[in-house]
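Reopening closed ticket. The problem is back. First fold of the pair:
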Amino acid sequence: MKKYLLFSLLVVCSVSCFAAENLIDPPVRFAGTPLRTALDLLFLKAKGVPYVIDTRSEKLNAPVFVKMNRPSSVEDLLTLLLAPNGLIFSKSQEGIYHIDEGEFTFDKKIIKKLRRKTPPEEIEAFFDFNNAPLLLAIEKICEPAGVSYVVSGGNSSAGNYPVNFRYMPGKKIKVETLLGIILKPAGLVCRRFEYGIEGVYNIRAKAENEAWEEVKESVLHTTLRDVLLAGPVKLSGIQLLNGLERLFLKAGQKFESDVKEIGSYGGMFYNSEKDVLLSAALKDILEPLGLATYYNTHKDSVHICRAGVRRAEISYQDIYESGSLDFLAMLERVRAALSKDGKLSFDDEEEVLIVADKPENIEKAESAIKK
């Protein structure tokens, strides 16, 4: 009887001690770690909390990608490790965690409430990714804001997707927006608190019925990626379009022109005996002609435009939700709102209507859609 009482006291004591120390200090980082190994490491960090794995599923070999930048409970970390891989956990009265196959269920109302009460995480930082692996870019963006994340749904293969994106901050921007920009080319989205855990973003494939997050044109018009061109750089007596083709070929970058009559611009003269930055060369060539550039993140290309011209993307979903049932009539209203230099085009792959013009005319075009 005394032995039984002693054993009971030890169990109660161990559970009570764990309850008092239930948070695991950051950082907790798993980058392609097999799930079974990640579980062993997690419970080691939890100072010997007992657990049993009740399945021999191959899912235990799945690579996991989790980064926690804040103190976290064992149960939150278990959720992030297991939920994306079709496993669940339960806790016995003795304080033993059991891991088995099954599906988590998450209350959408609780998630919505959590999103509403928590302001979006924002940062003001410079980013320059030149063929950076996607997972590295995600980590660099999340770290300054203390945002945690999990890559779920078997999308670890996208981790090495090359990211080419440069952001020059002028003010604070939502972490969700920056992540959305670099994830979209890989077919991924990020969703705040989707697993019901504050501060944790779920990165996964976009569902068929989901719309891409709308990104303001001011974010898309980031500074073009600079490339140092080896001198000498000589472009003399040739048409502007031909000169630009040679310049961008030398820089190894793509470009497009939003200026319809760019082929009619006459002879250009540019000469630099020394190495020169692409941005500096373009400025010297285009500025006297009243032209400028912007970098289109989605297409990974530089656009030639008239100075002062900006570009906006309006998703088909937003057009539909605006109540513009007569699509042709809506397009006529948009065209009427643009100047003679304005450009209207479509990207059916991205499901967006693209408008390029002076800022005041873009505002008129957006208003025309809502009529």
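Second fold of the pair, where the issue appears:
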Amino acid sequence: MKKILFLMSLALSTSLSYSQCEAVPFALLELFSSEGCSSCPPADEQFNKLYREMRGENLLMVAHHVDYWNDALPGPCGTSAWKDPYSKPGSTLSQREYKEALGGQHLVTPQWVVRGRRATFINLEDLDQAKKLLKSNLKRTPKVGVCLAMTQLDTGLHTVTFSYQVSGSSNNGSEALVCILIEDDLLSEVTAGENCKKTLRHDAVRRTYRRKIINNQMDESGVLTISLPKNLRPEKAGVLAYVQDVKTREAIGGNRGFRLVE
């Protein structure tokens, strides 16, 4: 039945039924990675494990694949180039924005960023330590509430439309709603570069990204549409959103959103 539905335009009607969007505790963990980076697979595996183990929490996780590792590099198959199929210039730009906000000197992978406030360039070897850090974030009530509800999934036009609501108090009158389409369970058979001959698996990979400036009153609702990659599998995808302080890049409210197919 699902297969039949995917072959035609699919409309799902849902509306935001609340008068005010409540601020609920959240955590945001972002990984900047690349299939062309030999030190990234261990971080990818740790990220995937956290993603599976903490799936029931209001934890937002995104794996951004950068594009600066797509050049020819020495590896098991000689010097060759592997273009990461999930790499995007926008992911590199997001990492550069964090570098400028957090005072880093270089773009390095793998990099973990927590709520846009804390970054580390090393693998988190201790998963219990990572969980403790994220759970501490999940105990704090943020200043901003973010709510999402899908209104239409059109697999013919390759779009998803959803309603959103943001409410709360502003940091400095300069905030944006960041919406990210993620896809899980992606596999790559790498045939060149530093990871040649490896099979890599990824969860929560950034496929589409949209940022919208929020009004100064931090009380806004509306409807957004984002494009879906043509090779996206809707049953493996979802949309999450958070409000970001544009100046500091700190995430001040978030919602793990919805899956395209429940």
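Update: turned out to be a display glitch only; the data is intact. The chain has four helices and 15 strands. The longest strand covers residues 144-154. Please close again.
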